[in-house]
Each structure stands twice: as structure tokens, then as C-alpha cells.
Design a protein that fits this description.
- Keywords: Cell membrane, Membrane, Transmembrane, Transmembrane helix.
- This is FtsX-like permease family protein.
- With 808 residues, the chain is α+β, with helices and mostly antiparallel strands.
- The chain folds into four domains: 1-37 and 256-391, no CATH class; 55-245, no CATH class; 398-453 and 668-808, no CATH class; 459-661, no CATH class.
- Helix content is 51%, strand content 17%.
- Helix 8 (251-288) packs parallel to helix 22 (669-704).
- The chain is globular, with a radius of gyration of 34 Å.
- The chain starts with a helix and ends in a 15-residue tail after the last helix.
Amino acid sequence: MFFKMLKKDLKCKKGLNVILFIFITVASVLVFAGSVEIFSYLTGEKRMAEMCNTCSLEMMVPAKTAASDEKIRQIESILDGYKDVEKYHSCDMTKIDMLRIDFPRIEEDETNSFFKWRAYFMKLPREFDLLYDTNDEPFYLKSGTIACPVDFSTSIGLRVGDKVKFTTSMGDVYELEVACFFKESGFPGRRRIIVADEDYDILTKDEVIKIKDYGLYMKDCNSVKMDELHNTLKAEDMICPMYMKYDNTDDDVIMQAIVSVFVVIISVFLIAIIFMTIRFTMIADLKSEEKEIGMMKALGVDSFSFRWLFAAKYIAFAIIGGAIGIAAGIPLSGYVVNLFNANVILPQRYETVIIGIVAVLAIIAMMIGFSLMVMRRINKISVIDSIHGENRGERFGKGFPLFLHKRKKMSVPFFLAITDILGRFKRYIFLIIAYTLGAAIILLCYNVRNSIISKEYMKLFLCHTIDFDVRIRGEFREELDKRSEAEGKNYDVLLNEMFKENGFPAYIDTLNYSWGTLLDSKGNKKENFDVLWGDGEIEKLRYRDGGKMPQLENEAAMSYFTAKKLGMKLGDVIDMSIHEESEDGINSEDVKRQLVITAFFDYSEAGNPAIIMGKDYRKGEKIYSKNWIGYVIDAPESQKAGIVKQMKQCFGDDTIRTWQESLKQDMLAEYDRLFALLEYVLGGAVIFVLILITYLYSTVFVTEETPEIALLKSSGFTDGAIKKWHLLRMAVLVVFSVVLAEVLFRTLGQLLMTKFMASYEMTGVNFLLEIPVSFIIIPLIILGVVLLTVSVTLKGIRNIGIWKISEE
């Protein structure tokens, strides 16, 4: 009986069944891959630590220090005696110039961001930061081969088997074959190129910058402890750069988190659509079979098994779609995870299978349970329905109080559309929900990209203005180096002079950089801060409402994330230990100061909160490069594009870039790639789902309204007028849904963005609405897609005649 009911249902409603099956199958695949993606994100750090034996702190001993055995013994003696260092390992690395490696299919160009990375030759690690290939397997190299980071394949199209040529500093050329790619487990700020053990000494014998790399395993590693160790070594005249691992503000981690959030959003959307579709189609089925159900209940057939028969199709679709989802999800899940973060080591295969199957089975169980729940509607069908059908008086109930004779300027199709929606609003609730969620997701996808790849977003990195960008490369760098050495001036000063000499109203705005430590009431170190001060235009930075720009020497503004974490309020007085120049201007020392917090500012802290000192403050140490906080063109907005074009002609396209080129090709290039992928893939997926849901609902509407359509045609209405009624009804529903989506996006979407960014120590990220796209183009795309789909389903109206209501 089960299979007879299933066969009958599949034959009668082929189009609707295909759509429902596609929904369930796609949802199963996505839930499988999405659950693995989320599990990989949540457990990736721990899995990487266990498999790769990653250290918590990396210390790179400079070449000059590393060349001295006595210095190395001194460093290791300090590490042995440092209470927070549990153990450490070391290995040798040699820094190389990427431009001396000849890669196939790409021209070695110093203006290409790929060749700006620090690169090191090293042997295969055996003690810490171990490496695995793209199949998450250990690998070994034979002489004449190398292994490269996996992003070499995505960045420059390098392939296994390619031959690369390395030219030593003495001019010797060695040809090396790419044996495999590996997932980077070390510090992301540099690239390791692995060579065979027997080749390492030969390839690096003429190189000068040979570094000793230490992997430290520390108790509760944090910036304060790293600073203490750094200062201990510095006191012994050994300055060694240090980098903390497991930084949750790393770009790869953030991008994978973004993907996980969108996976959850689209999964919830699809599941909601499926449940709405099941409910809608089941109610339509029950309505069409109302007489038969009433008759069977009159005969005494009313059992749980009987209800299962009406759920036969949904049960079968859930099981078959779930099985396809599991089969497709196993290979697809790994691809999805590595697509957005190639350096993640995937969960074990058994973990992938178990997690995916559990997720899919949960969805199947929910679908079956929901189908049976909808079956409760059978309880409302009585024996009277088998006798009278729908003619029990409810069709003559009070309708919506809108009368055509009182709306002389309203066309009949529009009147029918409005009264239909208002009079039977419950009928369209789920369709409105589907359109609202779909439009909100599309708005979210677009506006995330639009808001992040923007000038406003750069203010969170303390760049108050970016009207242009300048790249210091090649001959231009050589020219600046010569002038800097001859005149004793920094790059920013020289650039401003060059802009002025050539008649451009452009300048680089800067702040000096030092460091400081927040102290508690007992004078103990509490939190490390970057300290910014100087003549920069700090009034142009973005302060939170209620604060005012710090002016006096004892005033300061604090980055908001850490200030909120510490419970700081405007007007609070804090004790800071700031690194300052001594009175002789030669030495430096830590000076304790009391500062009044006059403002908070939004900032991407990335583990490094910041303090902006008042404009009167001038005592900080100037040992680091200045922070460039503005690329300003002092001209009306309408003239800036033309000035940038003239600057390009003067200094070259490789030196001067527009702010769009700077963000999309350099500063935020990885984010732009990810957001573009999400925008087109998820946006396209949502549009596809809306097409299917529109086709399904519109088809059911035409079927249910066949008597009304036949009656209208017999009364003289043309097919065009009837189609206009249906199109206008869907247009009104779409417009109403888009308005709800705009409200949902501006409220819940903004809350989601704020909470998500706050988890990565960033506050003040707001959506920047591009009015034409958000309020015109996207709504028109959704409206056009829906109306086009409805037009396709209305072709069958021409075959409907008065005989369709002969039973009435």
C-alpha cells in the first residue's frame, strides 16, 4: 500500500515532486558539508596542535646572533631558566629573495604582492611545526625536489612536477622539481620552502641571512609574557622577533569563521524552506483528497498507519535525498573546507562520516516528524466533508471590506490581487517568509563585501583617509633610499615633498609609534598597548559617541574592545608605563604616567590594543617606523579621481594606485576574493531556491484556483487579464517581503555582524548601504526572477475552460 500511494503521488505531480526532491537533496548535501565545515573550524586549532606539534610562541634569532655559538648558548640558558617556558626546539632556516626563484607561468615582478613575502629554505621539520601534504599525510623529499606551501598553487598556479630555478647570491643556478604542496602550520607571516636534507647546505652555502628558528612551548602564552621574554633578551643585547601562534585574528581563521556563519545561515534558510514546502504541499494534497479521507473515516479507517500513507512521498524523499547527501557530502565536505582555508588539516575520515551522517539523519528525522505533525490536519476532516465537500457555508463568509465599485481607478486584476492577499493572508505567510529570508541573505552577502572593502572599514585600522595609495618598489625605492640617506628624512616626509614639488595637493599623514603597558593598582603589568602620538590629524579618526579627541599631554583615547573588557568609562584615570626617550635624547626608559580617558575609538586590535595620546604629548620613543594614518588629497571629492590619474602619469601606475586598487589587490585582497565567492555562490543559490519555491507555489495556486479562472474566462476576462492578476499578486508579495528583508537586515543582520566582529576583537563594524544596489537593483532582480517564473507557470491558463467547474 505504501508503494502504491507513493507511485500514484509521483505520477500525478511530477513538477512539484521534482522541486521538493531537489530541495531535500541539496539540503542534505549542504548540511553534511556544513556540519563538517563547522566541526573543522571548532576543532581545527586543537587538531593542528596535536598532529603538527605546533609551538605557542615562535622566536627567530637573527643571522648575526645565530652565527655565534656563544650567543646561542646564552639564549638557550635564558630559555632554560625562564619559568614560563616548558620546553623548546630549534631548527635552521635561510632567508632567500623570492625574486631569485624562477617560477613557470608567471613573471617575477617585485610589484606583485606574492613576491613581497619573506621566504626561507629549510629542511623538513622533525620536532615542531610539522608539515602534512594536501591529503593530510606526512611526506618526504628526495634530492632535487622541493615542497611548497599550498597557497603557491592558488596564487601563481604552480603544479606538482613543475620545474623551478633558484639562483644563489653568487649566480649559481639550480633546477628543482616541485614534489608536493603542504599545509602551513607555522607562523603565517612567512613562507617556508622545504628542500631535501642533502640539498640544504648546497643551496644555502652562499646565502648570508641564516636564521635560528625556535619553537617555544609556554604556559598560558600571552602578549605580556612575550614582552617580558623579549625585554629579557634585549637586556642582553639580543633582539629576537617573536610571534604568537593560535591568533584568532589571523586572516585564515576569520575567513573560515565567516564561511561557517554563512553555512549556518543558508542551512537554516534551506531547512525552513523545506518545512514550509512540505507543509504547503501536504495541505494541498489533503485538501484535494478531502472527500476520500472523509469517506474512509466514515468507513472506520483512521489509524496511525493510514496517516503514514499520506506521508509516503515525504518519507521516501527524505531517505533517498539523505542517502544522496551522505554519498556526495563525503568528498564535497573536504573540498569545501579547503576551498576557504587551504591550511586546515581535515578531521579524520571516520569523524567526517559520523558527523555528516548524524547531521543528515537529524534532518531526515525532523522532516519525517514534521510531515506526521502536519498529518494532524486529518483530524479536522469529518464525515460531512465526504458528503458536502467545501460547500458548507465557509465560502460565503465575510470577505475583506474592499469593494471594486468604490475603487473606480483600480484595475480589476489589481483589485483581485489585493483582496486575495488581504482576504486570505494566512495562505501566503510561508511564501512571504521564504522571500523575506532569501532577500535578507542576498542583501547580507552583498553588503558584507561592500562594507568591508571600503574606506570606512579602513578607519578600523586607524587609516582615517585613503584617497590614494603609494607602493614603494624598485627604482622608486632606490630613489627614496638615496634621498633618505643624504637628507636624513623618513619616507613619509620625502613623499610629501615630492608631491608638493610636482604640484599635487596630496600628503601622507602619520603618527609616531611606541609601546606601553597598563598597570593595575599595585603597579603590576595588566595589558600591553601600542601607543600612538605626534602631529598627525587625530581629529579625523573615528571616535565613539560621547567622547572627545584627546588634546592635553595627560589625555588619551583607548581602543574600545579592550576598554569594554576592562570596564573602562570616559573620565577614568589609568596608570600607564610608556616607553619614552630620556632627556638626553639618546637612551630610552619606561615612564609611569597617569592618563585621563577622554574618548574610545573603534579599532581592529588583533591582540594589540592601542592608546592615542593627546596632541600635546611629545615624549614617546621614536624607534619604530611611523604609522601612516592617512593618504590625503586636499581637494574636493569630485576632483580626487583626476588628481590620482595625474599622479599615476607622474610616478607610474606601479607606484600610485586608486584606493579601490589598493584594497582589492593588496590590503584586503583575500577578503575580497572570499566575499566575491560568497556573494555569487550564495546569492546564486538563493535565487535558484526562490525560483523553485515560486514555481511550486504558483503551480499549486493555479491548480487550486482553476474554478475561479474558468469562471472569469466565461465572464469575458482574457487570459492576459487573468495572468496580470497572478503576476500582480506575486509582485505585491515580493515588494512586501523585500521591505521586511530590508528591516531584518538592518536589525538582525547588523547585530550578527557586530557580535561576529567583536569575537575577533573588532568593534564599530557597520553596514554601509549602497542605496542603488540595496534598494533598487537587488529588489528588481528578485522581483524579475519571481515574475518570470510565475509567467512560465501561467502558460497552462489557456487550456482552462468553463467545463472545469462542471462539478460545482
